[in-house]
Amino acid sequence: MSDYIEGDLMEVYDRNLKKLGKGKADWKFIIDVILLLRPGIIKPRKAYQNLNSYSMYKSYFKIGWRTLFRNKDYALMNIAGLALSITCCLLIFTLVKHHLSFDNFHENNEQIYRIVTEMHSENEHYSTGVPTPLGTLVRDNQTFSEKTARIYIHPNALITLPEEEEKIKYKEASGVTFAEPEFFNIFNFHLVEGSIESSMNALNSAIISERLAVKYFGDKNPIGKTILLENDLEISISGILKDIPDNTDFRSEIIVSFPTFKSFMPWLASDDFWSGISGNLQTYVVLNPSTPTYEAEEALTYYAQEYPINKQTKSVYKLQALSDIHFIDRFGGGVIDKNHLWILSAIGIFLLLTACVNFINLATAQALRRAKEVGVRKTMGGQRRQLFWQFMVETGIITAISIFIAIIAAYILLPNLNNLYETNLRLALFTDRSLILFIVVLGLVITFLAGFYPGYLLGGFQPITAFRQKLSQQHIGGFNLRRTLIVSQFVISQVLIISLIVVINQMRFTKNADLGFDKEAIVMVKAGDYAISKMEAVKNECYRLPGVEQVSLCNNAPASADKWETDILRGNSQEKMDFLINMKLVDANYVSTFNLDIIYGRNLIVSDTVMEILVNETLVELLGIINPNDALGSHISVNSGNMKGQIVGVIKDFHDRSFHEAISPTILASASRHYSHFAIKIDPQDIQSTLEGLRSIWQGNYQDQVYEYAFLDDRIEQFYLTENMMLSGIQMFTIIALCISCLGLYGLISFMVTQKTKEVGIRKVMGGGEIHIMWIFGKEFVLLIGLGFVIASPIGWWLMQRWLQDFAFSIQIDIWTFAIAGIGTLIIAAATVSYQVLRVAFLNPVLSLKAE
C-alpha cells in the first residue's frame, strides 16, 4: 500500500475503533480497504476522497440540523418568511405560465396572425374584424400568406334540440363559429370522428365538441342529429371535435361550415360588402416565413385604399400576432394585461428578495452567538471553505423545508387564485417539467442569495477573537449592512402600500364617480322577439309588476361594450365628418329610465324610424357649434345617409365606456326595428320578487327563448375586471410583504434586546426611565423606516403615474397617499417591536445585570 494512502486509512481505522470497538473495527477497516483498493474501479486516493467527501457532507447536514433545533426561533422565522415568499412565487409562476401559454400549442403558432383594422380620424377606433371580401382577395392574390381562413363568431347563441320530446334549450355563451375549412389547417383542433372536408364544405353542417355531444345527447351517437340555431337555422352534426384546451381564446365548441353563414347572415357574408366591418368576422393568415410583417401590411395598404370602408376615415389593416390576441384589450383581448403579469412577476421577485434579506439579517445577527463554534472548528483545523459550506448546507435545509411547506400551501391556496382570476389552474408537480425546473432553480437561487454572505462572514472569523468573544458589530458586517437591508425591505413594502392605496382610490373613483346616468337597480333583459308590437305588449305587462318603476326599449345601455359606430353628415352636406359617432337607438322612455340630463331642448317623440335626434355635448363641440343651444333645429344624417333627423335636444355628456376611454360623440334616436333589449328600472327594496315576476312574463311570451338578464352595474363592473384582479393581488401580496418584513424586524429587535440587556440595566440603575429605554430601541427603526419612505415615495409615485396613464379619467395622487403609507408602516413596525421593547424596558435592573 502506498505511503500517501496508509496514513489516511489509519485515521479511518482509529475512528472506527472508537465508534465500534476492537472486533467490529477490524472487520470494517478490512472492508474499507477492499472498497478503496478494488482494481479497475477507482484509484485509491480518489476513492478515499469520495468517501471522505460523503462523510463531510453527511456531517454538514447533521450539524446543520442540530443547529436549527438549537435555534428554533431563528429557524422558524426564516422558514415562515421563505415559505410565504415561495408560495407566492409558485402561484405567480403557475398563473403567468398559463397566460403566456395561450394558443402556443398550434403548429407554426409564431407565424399565425389575425388581420385587424385601425380607423384613424378625430378619434382612434380599433376592430378585430375586416371587410368580408378581404380574406378571399388575400387568399387568391397575395403570396405573403401560406394559408388564409375567415371565421364569423356568433356569441351567446341559443341552441335548441328539436328531436327531443320537449324542446330543450341552451344558451352557449361561447357562441357558434362559422369557419372556412382552412381554419383547421391553421389551428390544431382535432376531430375524433368525422371529416373536416365534408363537414366544413357542406351546407348546414357542424362539428361539436365531445363535451357538448355528451351534454346534448348523452350516450347516443350525435352524428346525424340536428340542432336549431336561434330557433331558425337547422344544422346537422357531422363531426366530433376533441375538447378544446383551457389555454386558447377560441372558446366556441360548435363549428359550422362557412357556406351556412351565407344563409344565416347573407348581407355580411357577401363578397361585395366593403361598406362596413363586424368585429366578429375575422380573418387569420399563416405568414410566409420569408415575409416580414411590415411587407405584408404594406401589401394590405392597397386594399384599404382601393376599397375604403369610409372615405372620411383612414383605414389601416395590421397583422396582430396570435400570441398578442389574449392580452390586447383594444382588439377584444384584455382578459389579463401583459403588464399585469410583469407586475405580478416583479412582486414575486420582490417578496423573494425580502425573505432573503430577512435571512441574511437574522443570520448575521446570529453570527455572534456562533463565535465559539467557529473558533473551535478553526482550532481543530477547519478551513474557511468548510465553514462556508457548512452554513450553505444549513441554508439549504431551511430552503428545502420552506419549499416543502410552500408546495402544500400552494395546493391549498390554488382554488382561491382560480376564483380570483377566473382560471382552472392545476399544480402538476410530478408531470410539469417546467414547474419542477422552476422549483429546483428557485431553491438553488434562494440558497445562494440567502446563504452566501453569512457563510462567507462566518468563515472569516479569527479563532482567538472568537474564543475571547471580542467580536463586534463590524465583524458581522456592522449595523450599516443590516440598516441597508432593513431599508430595502421597507422600500419594497411601502411601494406596494402606495400602489395599493392608489389602485383602491382609482377603483373607488370608477364606482362612485358620476357617470352621467343612473346605473343602480336597472336590469337589462334581452328581447326574445324583435317585433315592436310584441315588445310593446311585454313592456306594458312589465309595468303591471309592483316593483317595476320604468321600462325602456333600446339597442343597449348608455355604457356598453357593444358600440354602433358610424359616420355623420351635417345638414345637406354630402361630405362626411372626419370622425365616427356612437349611435344608440332608443325609445322616449330611455331618458327617464337612465335619468339622463337634457340641458337644452326636449326629449324624443315616439317614432318607428329616425326623425328626431338627441346629441351629447362632445358631439356638439366636434360639430363646431359654440353655443349648444344653437344646435337645436339642425339636421344631421348618419349610417351613410340612411338615417336622417333633426336635433331636438342636447344631453349632458355621459360615460359610454370605461374610464379608460374618452367620452364618444353620441346620438340618441328612435328606430324600433333596432331595439334588442329591455332596460327595466326596479324598486331596490323588492328585487327578488320583481325578477321572478319578469321571469314569468318572459316564459309566457317567449317560449322559444331562454330568460336571461344582467344588472347594469354588474356589466359596468366588467369594464374593470383586470383592475379588480390586480387590486386583489396587490392587497394579498402587500400583506405578505409586510408579514415577511415584520418577521425580520421582530428577529432583529430580539437580537438587539439580548445584546443590550446589561446596558439597559446599567442605564436604569443610573436613573434612566422606561421612555428613555424605549427610545433607544425605537429611534433606530424610526430612522430606517423614514429613510425607506423617502426612497419608496418617488418610486411609488412614478409607477402609479404610469399606471394611471391608461385611464382617460383618473384620480390625482395627493400627499395623503404617501402620508397613509408612511404612518401605516410606522404603526405596523411599532406593533411588531413593542412587546420586546416593553419587556426589556420594564425588566428589573438586577435581572438585567445578571444576564449573560
Automatic annotation (TrEMBL):
Q: What is the topology of this protein in the membrane according to its UniProt annotation?
A: Multi-pass membrane protein
Where in or outside the cell is it found?
Cell membrane
Q: Which GO terms describe its molecular function?
A: transmembrane transporter activity
Q: Please give the GO cellular component terms listed in this UniProt entry.
A: plasma membrane
**What coarse category fits the chief subcellular location reported for this protein?**
membrane
Q: Which UniProt keywords apply?
A: Cell membrane, Membrane, Transmembrane, Transmembrane helix
Q: Where are the transmembrane segments?
A: 75-96, 341-363, 387-414, 434-459, 480-504, 732-754, 781-800, 815-838
- Superkingdom field: Bacteria
| Domain ABC3 transporter permease C-terminal per the UniProt entry, residue ranges | 346-459, 732-845
Residues covered by the MacB-like periplasmic core domain? 76-301
Name of protein: ABC transporter permease
Organism, by scientific name, is Anditalea andensis
